[in-house]
Every structure is written in structure tokens, then in C-alpha cells.
Design goal:
eight-stranded mixed beta sheet; 16 helices; binds ligand SAJ
Length: 428
């Protein structure tokens, strides 16, 4: 086999772009490809504004060194890495159209001896059922002419470079040679262990990891609901329970959002419905947390039709990604029940939802002004220090702490009713 010198990375999103930059920094000649003209022309001018600072710095280095180039169309390369999104459709089935299209786009450029890698989170069997047939159609026999691998990413958005370099990595080849070649490639920048397995097993590993987290968050949310009814503070209970060496209860909250944890379990549920009941129930629990919080606020006196401030529309703390966030669900339910709402986020300046842009404030007091309740939905550090004065512009004194990050007692002492996830409502 010829050594790999040139690599094409297809999809320059939150996984593809840092991957391309890290590979360029490791001495490969990398062509980053994206179908979005805006992404490519911005990068050609050396701009990647929305990227994390470490990603931005590495991309700039790669572009300046000439090792990283960008294009809207693929070219002949020694290796191809596909990093495109795999969203879930309205019926919860996996939408593999972008994996299909990306594989078709590279097929004319793949030559015997090349390595083709898929990183996109995908249902079990995607390598065999989507990637292999497309390459075969192009005259390339997997295992003979071309090596094919499934290598899922494990990036925690907000800390991408560090995670890509330090985390262990799964490499699932359709043959042993494919596994070895991909392991050698990732080993160039990954300091974690590179674990080899089969392609189908690697596909399952990725789904297993995110489903594990979803089910465990659902468990924490169920414990929170029990505590609310039992009149106990679950945060205290969890802290004490986690003193057990084999127990690690996660953090209950306002729900699970993002494009991974809330989506990937569906790839298992859809394909194996008769054995995944537990996973469906976990999805239901996590999806219903925003409505659960609203109903607790209603029980604490929030009148139908009043005005609510949503604090935090990002799906997780201290990031600017609002895709599938629990706040989207809350806004939908508020709308359906006749409430009016405003939204605030220190990181998100454009809140895209249902194909449109939702109004969003960067000024907290403007978002809170004249509202009857404030729902803290995202664990942004900026919200931790909020005190009674910050909420003084509200009409009524009702606060929902959906992430348990406020100093609740001072708020109650100042006359606020604080609805707390996982604990009884606090009042003066
Ligand atoms: N959440 C809780 N309680 C917790 C932890 C998280 O309610 O104790 C919520 C968060 O607020 C958020 C959602 O869950 O709304 C998902 O957040 P997350 O912290 O699980 O992280 P993601 O979705 O950004 O990233 C996950 C990671 N997977 C795992 O930790 C197993 C990451 O490593 C994956 O690379 C990523 O999914 C992905 O791309 O698949």
C-alpha cells in the first residue's frame, strides 16, 4: 500500500474542520470540502468566525502553511474522511441522504489503494448498506481495491481540539488492513488509545455511548421527579449517592438537546424496536422535561397567557449551539398554551427554529422586563451569579431554575418563588 500523503475531508462542520486542521498540522496535505459556498469562500479568505478559538487558530495555521486548502468539490486523494451530519427525520428515522451524497461525490475520485473513512454518527450497517454499494458501483471492490473504515468522532463541543487529541478513538475497518491504516492515520494526532474493531461494531459503539448518556440523564430526571414529590432536594441526594464507588448519577435538568444525545438513540430504537423499550422511555422522559417544568410553574401560580422569559437557548452551557435545545421545546409548548415569551442568551445571537429566526435578546434586563416568570434553561456560567436585582424588572416574582445553578435562598428571601428541578418549590 502506498503511504497516505493527501487527505480529503468532506464536510467542514464542528467535526470536519478541526479534523482537517489537525491533519494538516500533522504534515498531511489536506483538502477540506464543503458544499456550502459561504463556508468555503469564508475559509479561503482565512475566516472561520463561528469556530472555537483553538479550532480557528489551527485552521489559520493550516491555511497559512498551505497544508490546508478548501474547495467545494473533491479531488483525487490518498484518503477520504466523510464528516457530514446525519439528522433524524420527523418519523425518527435516520436521514442518510448527506452520507449518501458525500460518498457519491467522492466516488469518481477514489483510486485503488485509497482509504475511505466515515465519521458521521450512523445506524448499524451504514458502511455495508450505503458506503460499500456506492464504491462498488464505481468499480472499487472493498477490501481489495479500497479500504473502508467507520471511525466515529467523540468531540465535546466547546473543547474540540483537546478532545480530538486526548480522547481514545474507535477505528472500525471492514478489513483488518483498513483498521490498521486508519489507526495509523489517527495516531498521527491522537494521543489517546486507538481501539480497533469491525465497522458494524464501531457504528454500534458510537450509538451506545450517546444512548448510555441519554438513559442516564433520564434516570437523573426521574430521580428529580421523585424528589419533587417526596419533598427532598435531589442535588443533595445525588451528591451523597455518588459517594458510592460504583454509582455516578448525572445532573437532572431542563431536558436534553443538541444534535447527538437526543437523536442517536433513535437510530437504535427505529432498527430494533422490540428490544429498546427502555431507550424510548428515556427519550420521552428527557423530551418532556420542559413541559414538566412549565406545569410545575403553573402549579406555583403562573397564569395561562402570561409572559415568560426564556434564559438560555443554547442546548448546553457556554456554547452558542441552539440546535434541538430544550428551550425550543419550551417555546413551542408556551406558544401552544397561549403564553407570550421573550428569550435571552449571552452566546446565541441568531436563534434559528422551524426554518425561521426567533427574536432573541443579548441584554438580560430587556428580556426580563415586564415578564411574569423566568425559566433558566441553560447552564451558562453567566447565569450563576444572578441575584434578586437582576430580576427586578419582572412583573411577577416567579423563577424556574431548570439547571439548579442559581443561589436560590437569597432569591426566596427577596420574595421570589423559585421552582427548582429536583426539589420542592422554594418560597419565603
Ligand atoms: N445534560 C443533562 N444532564 C447531564 C449532562 C447533560 O441534562 O448530566 C444535557 C445537556 O444540558 C444537553 C444534553 O444533555 O442539553 C446533551 O449534552 P452532553 O453534555 O451530553 O453533550 P453533547 O451532546 O454536546 O455531546 C455528546 C458527547 N457524548 C457523550 O458524552 C457520550 C460527545 O462526546 C459526543 O461526541 C457528542 O455527543 C456527539 O457528537 O455525538
Amino acid at each position: 500500500m502506498e503511504p497516505i500523503r493527501t487527505i480529503a475531508v468532506i464536510g467542514l462542520g464542528y467535526v470536519g474542520l478541526p479534523t482537517a486542521a489537525l491533519l494538516a498540522g500533522s504534515g498531511y496535505d489536506v483538502l477540506g470540502i464543503d458544499i456550502d459556498e459561504r463556508v468555503v469562500s469564508a475559509l479561503k479568505e482565512g475566516r472561520c468566525e463561528n469556530a472555537e478559538p483553538e479550532v480557528k487558530a489551527l485552521v489559520e495555521q493550516g491555511l497559512a502553511s498551505g497544508r490546508l486548502k478548501v474547495s467545494q468539490t473533491p479531488a483525487v486523494s490518498d484518503a477520504f474522511i466523510v464528516c457530514v451530519p446525519t439528522p433524524v427525520r420527523a418519523d425518527n428515522s435516520a436521514d442518510l441522504s448527506l452520507v449518501d451524497a458525500a460518498t457519491r461525490s467522492i466516488a469518481p475520485f477514489v483510486r485503488p489503494g485509497n482509504l475511505v473513512i466515515l465519521e458521521s454518527t450512523s445506524p448499524i450497517g451504514t458502511i455495508d448498506n450505503v458506503v460499500v454499494p456506492i464504491l462498488r458501483q464505481a468499480g472499487l471492490e472493498p477490501g481489495e481495491d479500497v479500504d473502508i473504515c467507520y471511525c466515529p468522532e467523540r468531540v465535546f463541543p466547546g473543547n474540540s481540539i483537546n478532545e480530538m487529541v486526548e480522547n481514545s478513538r474507535v477505528v472500525g475497518g471492514s478489513t483488518e488492513r483498513a483498521t490498521e491504516r486508519a489507526a495509523a492515520l489517527y495516531g498521527k494526532f491522537c494521543r489517546g488509545q486507538v481501539l480497533g474493531t469491525s465497522a458494524a461494531s464501531a457504528e454500534f459503539v458510537k450509538l451506545m455511548e450517546n444512548t448510555f448518556r441519554d438513559v442516564n440523564i433520564a434516570l437523573a430526571n426521574v430521580f428529580a421527579r421523585v424528589a419533587e414529590k417526596a419533598g427532598i432536594d435531589v442535588m443533595d441526594t445525588i451528591r451523597v449517592a455518588n459517594g458510592h464507588p460504583r454509582v455516578n448519577v448525572l445532573h437532572p435538568g431542563a431536558g436534553v438537546g443538541g444534535h447527538c444525545i437526543a437523536v442517536d438513540p433513535w437510530f437504535l430504537i427505529r432498527d430494533f424496536p422490540d428490544v429498546t423499550e427502555l431507550l424510548s422511555v428515556a427519550r420521552e422522559v428527557n423530551d418532556s422535561q420542559p413541559t414538566h417544568l412549565l406545569e410545575r410553574a403553573e402549579a406555583a401560580g403562573l397564569a395561562k397567557g402570561s409572559r415568560v422569559a426564556i434564559l438560555g437557548v443554547a442546548y448546553r452551557g457556554n456554547i452558542n449551539d441552539s440546535r434541538g435545545s430544550p428551550s425550543e421545546r419550551l417555546a413551542d409548548v408556551l406558544g401552544m398554551r397561549g403564553y407570550k415569551w421573550t428569550a435571552h442568551d449571552p452566546y446565541v445571537s441568531r436563534w434559528e427554529m422551524h426554518g425561521g429566526n426567533m427574536p432573541i435578546y443579548s441584554d438580560l434586563s430587556a428580556a426580563l422586563n415586564g415578564t411574569d416568570a423566568a425559566f433558566v434553561m441553560t447552564d451558562h456560567d453567566a447565569y450563576r451569579s444572578l441575584g434578586p436585582d437582576d430580576f427586578s424588572g419582572m412583573n411577577s416574582r416567579l423563577i424556574v431554575d431548570g439547571r439548579r445553578l442559581l443561589a436560590e435562598q437569597p432569591l426566596a428571601d427577596a420574595g421570589f418563588t423559585v421552582v427548582r428541578v429536583g426539589a420542592p418549590t422554594l418560597q419565603q
